[in-house]
Design brief:
The complex is a heterodimer of chains A (185) and B (142). Chain A has nine helices and no strands. Chain A is mainly α and 185 residues long. The longest helix of chain A has 23 residues, at 20-42. Mean pLDDT of chain A is 86; it is low at 103-110. Chain B is 75% helix and 0% strand. Chain B contains six helices and no strands. Chain B has helices spanning 5-12, 18-30, 32-49, 60-74, 78-104, 114-139. The longest helix of chain B has 27 residues, at 78-104. In chain B, 9% of the residues are buried. The mean pLDDT of chain B is 79. Classes of the chains: A mainly alpha (185), B mainly alpha (142). The A-B interface holds A 8, 12, 15-16, 18, 20, 23-24, 27-28, 31-32, 35-36, 39, 45, 48-49, 52-53, 56-57, 60-61, 68-69, 120-121, 124-125, 128, 139-140, 143-144, 146, 148-149, 164, 168, 171, 174-175, 184-185 and B 5-6, 9-10, 13, 15, 44-45, 47-49, 51-57, 60-65, 67-69, 71-73, 75-76, 139-140, 142.
Chain lengths: 185, 142
Amino acid sequence: MSLYENDSKDVINFLKNGSAQACANLVTRHQNTVFRTCYSVIRDKQIAEEIAQDVFLRAFEKLHKLDNPRLFRSWIVRIAYRMAIDQRRKKKYYFDSIDENFDISDGNSPIDKDISDHERRQVIVNAINGLGKPDSSIFMLYYLEDMNTEEIATILKLSKSNVKIRLMRGREKLKKKLKNVLKQF
Amino acid sequence: MHIDEELLWSYLADEIDEANGLIIKEHLKTCNHCSKKLSVLENEEKKFQNLDYPLPSDGFNLRTSELILSKTKHTKQPWGVVFKTCLLISLLLILAISVWLVMNVNIDLPTLDNLGRIVLYVLPLAFLILVMKNFEGRMVRY
């Protein structure tokens, strides 16, 4: 069964009889995508997790309004993106200060010594988040959550060509940063 | 003449129309430069797909599911319960009126045998149960 069919089955089961298993299936299946969507905007793991939880709560409250259960994934990711953006707007000063603390390498100073896994991970996260909104979300949804440009365009209310252009731009920026800093690419 | 990177990427990502896809496929059969470029792109795509990006903490799905279930228990839609209650009251009223009519009004009714009684009293009940079931089914619209 495809992801869409599984989602459809679980949404119907939950609406029909409040099935706990159906709820657990939907949360487990989409927790990574929802969390990462929030994180790509918020850039604070703890706050992103709180928002992700609120996203699921709101989604299940409004589940009866979902016209097509097969599109549950795009629907919940759209909710996640909007809620994360709203939260960021409300606490603009706090989140802007988080961004300032990010060490966004300009790719000109290669690291000669070996770096730890944690530092490596941080460099990658910084590089992706450093693409800015909505490019970091587009990149994350395409490469890490395996969504296509059409789905991403629907979620972010952009045109498909706009998504493609931003994706290409993001690839080039990221390649440059990661090539010099991590000697990757 | 070579294929530009954006077009090559669209071809790789299967985000290209069929006609252009065929043209590119034919070109790649004879152009080493573009074939190598495609190979490099494929490599880069794999690396991007394997980048390390944060995931939610352990137990996130359990905590979230429990929260959802506890909240949805308390906010069960009341109108479904109200409708069922109204149907039940209607059924009781119909039965009560039928019994009153039979006992108090001189209607020239033929004497009912057991089968007749079953039809007279059970049929409305069956009808109302079917209506309720149909209603429950329509609550899930898909």
